[in-house]
Amino acid sequence: MPASREILGYFFICKSLNQKSSEYRSPTSQRSWRSVAQIVYNKHIINIINRLLTSQIGYLGYIKKCVCLQFVIKSNIMELDTLLSAFEKCVQIQYNGNLNFKDTLGNEWTFYYHLGQIVWATGGIHPRRRWLRNIALICPELDINQLLLREEEILIDYWDYLLLENLYHKQEINQTQFNDFVVKTVGEHLFDLSQQVNVSSLSWEVKQDKILKTILSSTSTNMFLEEMKNSWKNWSNAGLSGVSPNLSPVLTQPEKLKQQVNTIVYKNFKRLINGQNTLWDLAAKMQINIVSVTKSLRPLINQGMAEFIEVPDIQLSTTKGSKNSPSKSGKYNNCPMIACIDDSLQVVKILENIVTSHEMNFVGIQDPLQALPVLIENKPDLIFLDLIMPVVNGYQICEQLRRISVFNTIPIVILTSSDGAFDRVRAKIFGATDFINKPIEKDRVFAILNKYLYTGSMNKYCQNFALSYSEVDF
Questions:
Q1: Could you tell me which of 156, 34, 103 has the C-alpha nearest to residue 417?
Q2: Out of 165, 219, 314, 381, which could bridge 336 as a Cys pair, Cβ 3.0 to 4.6 Å?
Q3: What pLDDT does 28 receive?
Q4: Integer Cα distance of 94 and 37 in angstroms
Q5: How far apart (Å, rounded) are the C-alpha atoms in residues 285 and 295?
Q6: Cα–Cα distance between 86 and 330 in angstroms, integer?
Q7: Phi and psi at residue 95, in whole multiples of 5°?
Q8: Cα-atom radius of gyration of the chain, to the nearest Å?
Q9: Residue 305, class by beta-carbon neighbours within 10 Å (0-12 exposed, 13-18 middle, 19+ buried)?
């Protein structure tokens, strides 16, 4: 019997460039369908979603009309096949955006799609524990205590991806490590979801408020899903369907165990089975398949010498870095000054590493209210400007800069997470020169710098700058 579900579809129409879509919400703008079986299991739903996401009306807007689309499917019971269908629909329509799942306890899993392929996943039960575990497993040469992370950065939904991307651009991790990290992270999220459908009710929704573009990972969504099915099958066949890998084993009768095993084995058990490591953690530390690790603990559990307990997520080492002081680096004479205005420390650091690696000067500004005086003082030759920031947005800063004669012709490149024509046209109206999509791609930055800095009037700059990157048209 198909589970009872509810599909809600609603549209928010923005009739003015200067008004937010939320201002036009009304009780009558939401339409509810109760006969879910006629829609969810109907092949025409794919065509419906496809038209809405890709048509001129439904794809987050043209100049005078912006339509924001959100589909929500809520269920009391979600079977694995239904879960898989949610992912497969996104593949079929080459979806760009987020696929979000939420259980009744408030846990959320977010999958980021680009052109129908999963490029990242975040959230879940222990997001910080997972990140540190995979760093230690895949990038053991890194000193995680030296990683710079400001407290405010953790509040960003995809903080883990930004941090990983920053490590790659700084060449602290290589391409293989980046790919392995993505595959491991997405795989763990999918496994957790495959178990959640059996123990909790889930709701899922698609949103286009954040689009991440993959820079390296080549694993297809279908491969991820196939691995998800195989992993869950192996877990279930081992009789572990009721055991969450997010649980931590702890010894309850250590003295009894000590009498049954030799001293070395006992010390290893006591060191690892201490209520501090989840099953995921143990598998990573021992570099053994998680099914084998969990099965090996079953005799201890059955004999009452150990039990599984829930453990909290761990904390990352963070700093209370202030946004009030702009960061400045590079002392290269006769080389251009590049400025970046973005409230994200990770974005600023990524651009700083790219720019200074080619002997250019850089100034990073995280507080948009300080942008004008800092820019006037440093007189940059090109400005990277985030579009969405608190207090003052990129549109306003761009407009203010164009009113100042010294910045009238300076290239202003907008940093945006949106592919929508609406944002681009509006930014162009306010004086933007070009755009770069987030996450930041090194080759794209090189192309922008080459396009706007290496001109006849600026040949004095950076004679060693690589010119092998083709220009990117706006």
A1: 156
A2: 381
A3: 32
A4: 24
A5: 16
A6: 48
A7: -70, 140
A8: 25
A9: buried
Q: Provide the total of helices (H) and of strands (E) in the chain, helices listed first.
A: 16, 15
Handedness of CA 178, 182, 185, 187 (dihedral sign): negative
Output the CA–CA distances (angstroms, integers) from residue 322 to 78, 265, 326, 361, in the order listed.
45, 49, 9, 22
What secondary structure does DSSP assign to 162-194, as a single string?
A: HHHHHHHHTTSS-HHHHHHHHHHHHHHHHHHHH
**How far is Cα of residue 372 from the mean position of the Cα atoms in its chain?**
30
Q: What is the rounded distance in angstroms from the CA atom of residue 107 to the CA atom of residue 124? A: 6
Tokens of 366: 């995280």
Its sign, for the CA torsion 452, 455, 457, 461, is: positive
Q: Which residues pair with 363 in a beta bridge?
A: 328, 339
Neighbour count for residue 447 (Cβ, 10 Å): 17
- Encode pLDDT of 110-152 as tens digits: 999 988 899 999 999 999 999 999 999 999 998 877 766 666 5
pTM of the model: 0.61
Residue from 425, 369, 363, 426 nearest 392 by CA: 369
Rounded-to-10 torsion of CA 142, 146, 148, 152:
110
Edge-to-edge strand list for the sheet holding 361-365? 327-329, 361-365, 337-341, 382-386, 412-416, 434-437
Which tens digit of pLDDT belongs to each residue from 338-376? Answer: 999 998 888 888 899 889 888 889 999 988 888 888 998
Q: Which two tokens stand for residue 374?
A: 């800092």
**Residue 221 CB neighbours (<10 A):** 20
Question: What's the rounded Cα separation, in Å, for the pair 368 and 7?
Answer: 40
Residue in 46, 45, 156 with CA at minimum distance from that of residue 438: 156
Q: Which two tokens stand for residue 2?
A: 């198909």
Return the SS3 of 204: strand
